[in-house]
Specification:
With 90 residues, the chain is mostly helical. It has helices at residues 2-24, 29-89. The chain is 93% helix and 0% strand.
Length: 90
């Protein structure tokens, strides 16, 4: 969860920094509004890309954990079966 908080903080910080730079620049109101819109769109796109990347990585990790869990279950079941077979033969 701290990774998500980091990226959220990063996105907010980047947006605020860009907004402060735009507002303090010597330009007309129309140019400033256009730049704010462009920056907001860019930040939203980067944030969306970052969230999608995190989701992809999380999905990969979950899939890997599920596969390893199934592998462990199969190994445990095989060991139990071996033990039962050995006990039945004794």
């Amino acid at each position: 969860m701290s990774v998500m908080k980091f990226f959220a903080g990063f996105a907010v910080g980047a947006a605020l920094g860009a907004l402060a730079g735009i507002l303090l620049a010597p330009q007309s109101g129309a140019e400033t509004r256009e730049m704010i819109g462009d920056v907001a769109s860019d930040v939203a796109k980067r944030t969306e890309d970052t969230v999608k990347d995190i989701q992809r990585k999380a999905d990969d990790i979950i899939s890997d954990m599920q596969a390893k869990g199934e592998e462990m279950i199969n190994k445990i079941q095989d060991l139990i079966k071996k033990q039962k077979d050995e006990l039945a033969q004794s």
